[in-house]
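Team,

Forwarding the record for the chain on the shared tracking sheet. I've put the sequence and predicted structure together so nobody has to dig through attachments.
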Amino acid sequence: MHAAILLIGGRSERFLDPTTPKQFQRLSGKRVFEYALDTFLKTEKFQQILLPCHPDWVESLTKELAYLKSKIFLFEGGSTRQESVYRSLKYLKDDTKKVVIHDGARPFINTKMIEDLLDALDDYEAAGTYIQATDTIGVSDGLEITSIPDRTTMLRGQTPQALKKDTLLTAHEIAKKQNITTATCDVQLALRLGTKVKIIQGHETNIKITTPLDMYISEHLLRRWVASIKKPHDFSGKTILLIGASGGIGQKIHQELLNEGAKVIPLSRTTSPFSIDLNQSSSVFKACQDLRVAFEELDGCIFCAGKLYKGSIESISFEEVEEMTRVNFTSLIPLLQNIPLKKGGLFILIGSSSYYRGRKEIGAYSATKAASINLIQSLAEERPDLDIQVFCPKRTDTPMRRKNFPLEDPQELARPLEVAQTILKELKSHLGKGEILNVF
């Protein structure tokens, strides 16, 4: 039997936000610690997940996480990391053999780390995740550098760490008797017993959020590249509204959803029995009303529509900017307010890689795409009852692209079918909350 301890009791003195410790900050729609919690839950390796928590947050998080009541146990942590782990030990079940400990301020843990740590405990009493130090390390007496060790022998420690339950208990009990109270990790205490520690490869992206700059970096790390298939998810029998299904990526997503056995409701200016003109607010409201009459609930909505007019800021017409704004951005608001999505339903925005930086002659288009993505990220925070995600394909060989960039080499563009297949494969294996996934 395995247990996980997710430490969310820190005070975050260095984060410069006195009201909300770093582990409870919102990162693309979810609290920072929830990314690690979701990973622990996804592994299905743990019979217990213990959350020693900052005392001021126990009550509110107990309510927020009530839907996970049978899977987690949240309680008041200690004033130090070491004390929080020690308080967790009394809740471990008698038949627990292996314990994984992780810092809730590290959101980018992955399942491979966890599995490698648990496997290591078959032969070792303790294991930790480490990465090679790349900077020169200076040892100081507080005023001067006293030595510079060989950096090839220096490793940077991360969490998660894993220890056999008996080793963890013994290490903490001895530390307590010796008045050691400020250990920065559990491997440190295990080493005092003469325990051999297995090295597990960590990852550069497994950063610890300590300052506001780390939050900024983490937002960008969430814009990860999608290129792999994980495990299947069944779309069979699901009713999916597809807006912008008549061409380009949307048309290919339509076909792929049908191949998966989904019931697809295509929605564009030319579809029937339901149609929509995103450039006309009255049409958007009517389409939503018709859908509510016809369908009590929808399992999901994928928004693929887009409008692009190419032109410099000096030359583009205001009418063209207004149309791009309505189609790419403002039409989303009445849609999100009125489409009949079921609780736990899916909302996917197909964005554009251009959202990240304004570029010559497509600045207005890029701005509308950035606005729509920010809107969906906000929705992820406001609607935790929905599964919300953004996919941003690279330049893709669509009719809209060819019309605006006729001289581009098609060989340098992504193919709509491959983009659609990658998006569907990712949706079958992973659902995030407000993540921006770049598709190449």
